[in-house]
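Batch 3, record 17
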Amino acid sequence: MYDLPHARSDVINSDCKISARNVQLYYGDNHAIKDVTANIADKTVTAFIGPSGCGKSTFLRCINRMNDTIDNARMEGTILLDGEDIYDSKVDPVQLRARVGMVFQKPNPFPKSIYDNVAYGPKIHGMVRNRSELDELVERALRRGAIWDELKDRLDEPGTGLSGGQQQRLCIARAIATEPEVLLMDEPCSALDPIATAQIEELIDELRQNYSVVIVTHSMQQAARVSQKTAFFHLGNLVEYADTGQIFTNPQDPRTESYITGRIG
Amino acid sequence: MTDANFTDKDIPNPRSLTKTERRTKRRKAAEKRFRAYGLTAILAGLTFLVILVYSIILNGLPAFQRTVVSIEFTLSAEQFKEAEAALLKTRVYSNYFITSFTDTVNGLGLSSEISSDSIDRIVGKIGGTLRKFYRNNQDKVGQPITFDLPASSLVERYFKETFSRESISESNRFIRAEDLDLVDALADAGIIRQEFNWLFITGVDTGVDNPGGAGIGAAVLGSFMMMTVVLILSLPVGVAASIYLEEFAPKNWFTDFIEINISNLAAVPSIVFGILGLAVFIQFMHFPQSAPLVGGMVLTLMTLPTIIISTRASLKAVPPSIRDAALAVGASKMQAVFHHVLPLAMPGILTGTIIGLAQALGETAPLLLIGMVGFVARYPETILGGFEGPNSALPAQIFNWASRSDAVFVEKAWGGIIILLIFLLSMNIVAVLLRRRFERRW
Ligand SMILES: Nc1ncnc2c1ncn2[C@@H]1O[C@H](COP(=O)(O)OP(=O)(O)OP(=O)(O)O)[C@@H](O)[C@H]1O
Ligand SMILES: [Mg+2]
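Prediction for the assembled complex:
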């Protein structure tokens, strides 16, 4: 039912989870995000597409305030999560990030065991009372991350010793272990084979039942397969944001059209 | 496919893999030269190391060996009473001893007469030692006791072959040729023997009249106490300061200023810290002089910049993606640092700490200024009291011995260097073990 065409992106409606208003982001003098206004709906998969360097990752990091950690990054504008300004001075970014999880573009497992990688989030948030609950939670997260069968006998091994694709799935498992309301995924399938990709896409579809998922991808097919809404970024601008079907069949902006038909990018 | 008319010989493949190109040849030559330079440098370094270690061991090992004259002697109850009643008590003890010793020697069929001067020259003045022993152990009166008396400096050196018969002149008051004859005979009879010099390790400094009995134990204890103070003060402060500066402090002109100052402090000569310690800790704050506590505080000032610089470097070396990962699952900044960044930086921090401690251990100049080179001839009575009482330190003791005239003391200085190096080596081993432990955790 959420696949219905939304009239305009700047209309706040009841199922809007995240609402970005006039977001500007500067890295020093580099204006990386230019006046982006967008609503991200709840229980929906939103895909960000666009050429390399256009600001997809940057915008994603704005949503859980990961840009706070970059010294020369400066943000303007507001981003609301459930109607609350996440950049408000009273907001604790730690609480925000517990609700808005993130999978990074480059896999970054902790140099600890596979088990500890997944268990870390639930442990610090006090989500479990005892070891057996934690074991269960870790298994569930790894299963959903499509990696349990491969790793169930190697949980003590360091997460950094896995292959790139395995690390990526481990990071996905780690991100969903804390049960975030919004999951931001920055090219989660870039190093995965078709089978694992299909499993992750299944996971994304499953997460959509309860959560809001934002996925950055360079694969048009993937965007078309998993997302209901698609946003096209170009040189820091949000060029077009509409239902996925519309973007891929009837793009309004010539830049969108040339990108999805493979003429720019 | 190649034309049938051509064989491989006619048109050689211009880029055959088996034929070396000129550029490749040049690159190879450059690489070879570079390796040769490196190898030469390492060989030169190794040579110097071997020479250094060889000369230290050669000069220092004799300090771990000592020459003792072990003589059985019995003091009867009447003799004890008589001696204690006499006016020159030690002289009486001495006479008894000489009589008994002469009997022993004659029993071996050696020399007919031994003068008391000769005994003095071989084992030093014996009367005082005997009197002290019997007064403290009156139950031993009347029993045969074997005394292990340290040989005098020249006899000791005679056995270590750093002193020869030929260098004795007629006017030498300390040794005569006939003493050496007697000493040789006693050595053959097993009365004079060589043994491991435990006293050197456990003992304390002695005056110039007894160089053979001087030991480095008190100085080792002093150094150990100072290192404890340095570790307790500098590790937590240094690591906390680095974590704050690296992870939490805003980057502005003030933190830049602090950073520059820390780097500069690391390069300040240690004697400056010494004079600072003298002025601030002793003259202004009235801490006791010559105490390991103050020494440790001065060395802490010296060690802190080293620890801070290496800790910051190893914190910086932790990839930022690890911090991102921790923050993204909802860890606070503090949790990210203590759960993920710090363990990763730990090996580097430990290395820096050990380097700082090793530097502090060998530092002499600041100790001179706060008076830790004094003559300390006893152990502290209590451990805590030892921190604020006067004590010596390894390098200061070595310096002190090396500047004394008796060659036995100089030999002990070399021996002290061996102890110092063993100290350093064990610190490094501890660091390696700790590092292993931290690395194995992931
Ligand atoms: N930490 C940073 N410091 C300075 N500039 C940055 C930083 N991260 C990104 N940028 C700049 O911001 C712009 C957008 O980068 P971003 O990483 O958001 O691109 P992207 O759309 O995710 O590209 P890709 O598809 O290649 O991942 C680029 O011009 C980049 O150079
Ligand atoms: Mg990116």
